[in-house]
Design goal:
The complex is a heterotrimer. By secondary structure, chain A is of the alpha/beta class. Chain A folds into three domains: 238 residues, P-loop containing nucleotide triphosphate hydrolases (Rossmann fold); 174 residues, P-loop containing nucleotide triphosphate hydrolases (Rossmann fold); 75 residues, no CATH class. Chain A is 33% helix and 24% strand. In chain A, strand 7 and strand 8 form a beta hairpin. The longest helix of chain A has 16 residues. Chain B has one domain: ABC transporter involved in vitamin B12 uptake, BtuC. Chain B is 75% helix and 3% strand. Chain B has a two-stranded antiparallel sheet. At the B-C interface, helix 4, helix 5, helix 9, helix 11 and helix 13 of B face helix 6, helix 13 and helix 15 of C.
């Protein structure tokens, strides 16, 4: 590509933080209308690079050019004015404001000093039409699905005529149908000449949508290649330095044990007629689109949003736990899908985080580091799970996502629950830790625990589970064996296949 | 790379932690030195003992407030509860020393009730504690006025006043030893044990840090919330009983003490909105604040400027904390 | 995309938007009911109703300002002290002289704007928690005021008393002023960029910042508006009381009550949702309660007890159904 057509050039960018060299001479460019994927493990430097592009950080060394012109952003606003828009992983919409107000936030058209609401409404409708969406501009943003909010975010970027659009894991919270719609949109925008920097962990997406791909590793550029020259194997090797073959652990050799969880015809406001049996020693995967009820299933079993009817038998007891505390007492553990909001005590130490559940059930007047879980036992467990921290006294917010996740797994293992629910166990976790978490899950199953894994990551469900339940519209729509094809899972998830009744043992 | 990052942080964090605890203590020592230079009697054991005696109620109140602050709430009702305690003590005893003990028991009962109401309103009605306890402040003040008919006066019986006023003489080394210091020591030790030495304290920090995560891990969040408000209310009754020994009965004994206790905690490095704090910090903060007031009085500044100084120190302490946190990121 | 999400929203009435109507209806029922019950039917004629509206003015003006601050996700606990400062300053400068009215008003407005600026700067620039910042500023103001004045200071000339005691065609100036101010506030919130950005800052400050909004300026602006509204309430009180004393703000519990009426009016305490109509309705409810207490002959101290309970219960009516945790 000739340099003249490059919309963005970042040349030899370096950035250090106290004690760490986050970026070391990274060069990155993007042509007009190109989709350039950016991947790498957590901590590889992706977010630092994006933040420099977005004007959040200033580089220590290196230069940036937009359309051949040298630029230096002092503030996010400067980057936005220059045509760089970043869609962050955590969406920034105002739930109480209308779609139109959100789209024009900060660039509201005015007439005689007052907001020109008609212009905002029409403009928003136009932008959304351009994105192939029929979302009404007057709806509260909070009433939209996550996929729709994602589209409003894109419209928001277009409202300021973004020429360079950075999408940070845009499909992380989307199911496959919405994700593929989003990819379609990415292609459409690129066809209109918008340059897109696409950050993702999901290899199939990168393969499907991008023209080129750059892999960062340890703050350096490990690979930049046209997508045709970069098959998944090569990308993974560049990211982690090893092959994908040993990514998913081998399935259980022994047949599953007796059922420890039996649910018959159970319902609540979000679930209807759920039948399922979970056996000791197996990993039962639950797949489904967003809103299919797979998260509600976990919440119902764990007593967070309990079942209101049906027969539930858990570890021999015939009752549905009315609260998480009751569920834990019965012998259930649940790893939440929203680590930051529902899992971490950000300002407490790694140890305090790992001991939380034990302390919730201990005598409140006993010393905090005594039985049933002593300091030494906790440390041993954390070490066994390979939680990497300079010290377990360190505040957990300073750890990487993967290490945080492992510390929270330790929290549950400390109580040795018979049933463990893993919701999106590897969301926001780097590839190496992913493999480690899969191994932990498999080891737990091998030791006789029953594991229910709720996941939106299809390759994960297929690669890890012994059996797969597929949910649709609050009910279990079908069951497939582990290793089934993605097509089969999707067919049931969207309702194209004949319904296969769930098998109940 | 993550490891490199992780290794550096704790050292500087430990240092920051040491600094944070020390700030309140150091500021206190500096202020006390200044007080002593202005009024040398403060350097004598008796002077120090007297200072601690007068600071004890605020220190106890702050130790109680710490529990609520660390859980993420505020207790603004403690000042009015102190007033109610003193007025109630006067009404219940009616100058009859033989009624003192059951009057004190009854006052703790009232404190328990107020704490339970505060906690229940926050935990079950989910009203933000700042509103809930401001409402309690109004109601409890109103109740104190109603009870006393609006203009209480006189003094409590002597055995009631003992906790604030009684001083043992001819004690070795310190010469005099006020009972109030013993009460402070007992309360401080209890608070230290409850906050740092028992599982309960960790549950408070967990709830203050992330109540949803605590709940999903099995912590009874509501019980913790109710517990901290009860602790704070009982601390307020204790402080009220001591203050009743200091002077006469009036409607403004507890005026402004809720803010002073919060200010003391903030000065002592307790984090508002929960998740971080220490008993040492809360008590050191209270002593610092009290030393500041003493110093201002010695300098001959008008009494109302106490409030101004308190406002300045509050803002300065929080601004400093915010500045440090920003620099640490 | 999917049609299911489009259907729900136009038909679901949100609790917040319904609040003003419910409060208005509740106040009317309460007021009329109490008047009929006690036989004080003269409270129902024009004069009685105007009297009720006049009870709204002091709290109403400061609550309008508090609405801005709370919408922005902040809070102002210094308003009661600001009101005292304004009342004392006004009557002290006026000293009963009509020619000193303009300088006194100008001084009050300037100082209150300055206080708002300090509040806003502490919160937005130095990132001091808003509760603490405004509490601290309130203490500073009160300390300085009480150190300088111990009793009623100066007096306002009869001309200035017209603000509180005069009417045009049966409508007191003060009531007309309150509603004019409310209309201005509603326009600012509904129809200007400042208003849109204020909701954005309260709803998602980080998102607003990333959208290029100067969140610090918006926050400072909201605090200036609030402090100035407190200054106006102080001026009104000076006019009504004919002089200012350093306790008028605290005695009126304007800090707590202004926050309470805003929240009761359906504005989220966390910011980002709500408006002027709800606040006015909340103020009306409080004025009604005052009037009803008087009609029923409830004496001062029990009134205090009931007020505390009512504030909490009224706020709880919004909060108790909330999912999630509150501290």
């Amino acid at each position: 590509m000739a340099p003249a057509t490059l919309a963005l050039e970042m040349i030899e960018i370096s950035k250090s933080f106290p004690g760490v060299r986050a970026l070391d001479g990274v060069s990155f460019d993007c042509a007009r209308g190109e989709v350039h994927a950016l991947c790498g493990e957590n901590g590889a430097g992706k977010s630092t690079l994006i933040k420099i592009l977005g004007g959040v950080y200033r580089p220590d060394a290196g230069r940036m050019r937009l359309d051949g012109r040298e630029v230096a952003f002092s503030h996010p606003v400067a980057a936005r004015r220059a045509g760089v828009s970043i869609i962050h992983q955590e969406l920034s919409l105002l739930p109480e404001r209308s779609v139109a107000e959100n789209i024009y936030l900060g660039v509201e058209p005015t007439r005689f000093g007052a907001l020109d609401r008609a212009k905002m409404r029409n403009g928003a409708a136009g932008l959304l039409r351009r994105l192939g969406s029929t979302i009404a501009p007057d709806i509260r943003a909070g009433d939209l699905s996550i996929a729709q909010q994602q589209i409003v975010e894109i419209a928001k970027a277009l409202a300021v005529e973004a020429r360079i659009l950075v999408m940070d894991e845009p499909t992380a919270a989307l199911d496959d149908v919405d994700a593929s719609r989003l990819l379609e949109l990415v292609r459409r925008l690129s066809g209109e000449g918008v340059s897109i920097i696409y950050v993702s962990h999901r290899m199939p997406e990168i393969q499907a949508v991008s023209h080129r791909v750059t892999v960062l590793k340890d703050g350096r550029s490990a690979l930049t290649a046209a997508i045709g020259d970069a098959p998944v194997g090569r990308l993974v090797r560049a990211m982690v330095g090893r092959d994908l073959a040993d990514f998913y652990p081998a399935r259980a050799a022994a047949p599953a044990g007796p059922a420890v969880l039996n649910i018959r015809d159970a319902s609540n406001s979000r679930l209807r007629g759920v039948n399922l049996a979970l056996c000791a020693g197996e990993i039962l995967g639950v797949a489904g689109l967003e809103g299919s009820g797979k998260r509600s299933l976990a919440q119902a079993i764990f007593g967070d949003e309990p079942f209101e009817s049906g027969a539930i038998e858990i570890l021999g007891e015939r009752r549905a736990p009315p609260s998480p505390r009751a569920a834990i007492e019965l012998g259930i553990g649940c790893l939440s899908d929203d680590r930051k909001r529902e899992g971490l005590l950000l300002q407490q130490s790694v140890r305090d985080n790992a001991m939380l559940t034990q302390r919730a059930f201990a005598n409140p007047l006993r010393p905090p580091n005594a039985s049933p879980m002593s300091l030494d036992e906790t440390d041993a467990l954390l070490r066994k799970l390979d939680v990497r921290a300079a010290s377990f006294d360190q505040e957990i917010r300073l750890l990487s996502g993967g290490n945080q996740q492992k510390a929270i797994i330790a929290r549950w293992l400390a109580r040795a629950p018979e049933i463990l629910i893993f919701c999106e166990p590897t969301r926001g976790v780097d590839v190496a830790t992913k493999a480690a978490i899969y191994k932990i899950m498999r080891d737990l199953a091998a030791s006789g625990r029953a594991i229910l894994m709720i996941s939106s990551d299809l390759p994960e469900v297929i690669g890890v589970s012994d059996r797969i339940l597929v949910m649709r519209e609050g009910a279990i729509a079908g069951e497939l064996p582990g290793g089934a094809s993605e097509e089969d899972v999707m067919a049931i998830a969207v309702g194209h296949a004949a319904e296969t009744p769930a098998l109940v043992s | 790379m993550t490891l490199v990052l992780d290794q550096r942080r704790p050292a500087s964090r430990a240092l920051a932690l040491a600094r944070k605890v020390n700030v309140a203590v150091i500021v206190f020592l500096v202020l006390y030195l200044a007080i002593g230079l202005l009024q040398p009697t403060y350097f004598e054991p008796a002077g120090l003992m007297n200072f601690l005696r007068r600071a004890a109620p605020l220190a106890i109140l702050s130790a109680g407030q710490l529990f609520v602050l660390a859980s993420g709430g505020f207790d603004l009702s403690v000042g009015s509860l102190i007033t109610l305690t003193v007025i109630g003590g006067s009404m219940l005893t009616a100058n009859d020393p033989s009624r003192t003990w059951w009057a004190i028991a009854a006052l703790y009962g009232v404190g328990l009730a107020v704490g339970l109401i505060n906690g229940a309103v926050v935990a079950f009605l989910k009203t933000p504690s700042i509103i809930a306890t401001l409402g309690t402040l109004l109601s409890v003040n109103g109740a104190a006025m109603m009870w006393s008919g609006g203009a209480p006066r006189g003094y409590l019986p002597d055995n009631f006043r003992m906790f604030g006023r009684l001083v043992l003489h001819d004690v070795p080394i310190v010469k005099i030893f006020p009972i109030a210091i013993a009460v402070l020591a007992v309360c401080g030790a209890l608070a230290y044990w409850g906050f740092h030495g028992a599982v309960f304290g960790r549950r408070i920090l967990a709830v203050g840090d992330n109540p949803r995560a605590a709940e999903l891990s099995g912590v009874r969040v509501r019980s913790v919330r109710i517990g901290v408000f009860v602790i704070s209310a009982l601390a307020a009754v204790t402080a009220g009983i001591m203050l009743g020994g200091f002077g006469g009965v009036s409607v403004d004994v507890g005026l402004g003490l809720e803010l002073q206790s919060i200010a003391a905690c903030v000065v002592g490095g307790v984090q508002l909105m929960g998740g971080r704090g220490s008993v040492t910090g809360a008590i050191a903060g209270a002593l610092t604040l009290f030393a500041l007031f003493t110093l201002l009085t010695l300098l001959g500044l008008p009494q109302p400027l106490k409030e101004t100084a308190q406002g300045l120190i509050l803002i300065a302490a929080v601004a400093l904390g915010a500045w440090r946190r920003r620099r640490a990121v | 995309m999917s049609a299911t999400h489009l259907q729900s929203s136009p038909f679901t009435v949100r609790r917040g938007s319904l609040a003003p109507v419910l409060l208005l209806a509740g106040s009317v029922v309460l007021y009329v009911g109490a008047a009929l019950w006690t036989g004080e039917t003269k409270m129902l004629d024009a004069e009685g109703v105007v009297g009720l509206l006049q009870r709204m003015v002091a709290l109403g003006v400061v609550a309008l300002g508090q609405t801005f601050v709370i919408l922005a996700g902040s809070i102002d606990l210094s308003v009661a002290n600001m009101i005292s400062v304004a009342a004392v300053l006004a009557s002290y400068i006026m000293q009963g002289r009509p020619d000193m009215v303009p300088p006194a008003v100008a001084a009050v407005l300037a100082i209150s704007a300055l206080v708002g600026l300090v509040n806003g700067a502490l919160i937005a620039r130095l990132q001091v928690n808003s509760l603490i910042a405004t509490l601290g500023v309130g203490l500073i103001l009160q300390g300085l005021l009480s150190a300088s004045f111990t009793n009623f200071a100066g007096s306002v000339p009869p001309e200035f008393q017209l603000v509180a005691y005069s009417a045009f065609g049966g409508v007191p100036y003060s009531v007309a002023g309150l509603f004019a101010l409310a209309a201005l506030c509603a326009w600012l919130l509904r129809a200007t960029r400042f208003g849109a950005h204020l909701y954005a800052v309260g709803g998602n400050a980080e998102g607003a910042r990333l959208a290029g909004i100067r969140t610090d300026l918006i926050l400072i602006g909201a605090h200036v508006i609030c402090a100035v509204s407190a200054g106006l309430t102080g001026l009104y009180l000076a006019s009504r009381l004919r002089s200012g004393a350093p306790w008028v703000g605290r005695d009126g519990v304007y800090d707590l009550e202004s926050i309470a009426v805003v929240v009761i009016g359906g504005t989220l305490l966390a910011g980002g949702r709500g408006g002027v109509a709800g606040t006015l309705a909340g103020v009306l409810l409080f004025a009604t309660l005052d009037a009803v207490f008087n009609m029923l002959g409830v004496s001062a101290y029990p009134q205090l007890v009931l007020r505390g309970a009512i504030v909490v219960l009224a706020v709880a009516a919004y909060t108790f159904r909330a999912k999630g945790h509150v501290a």
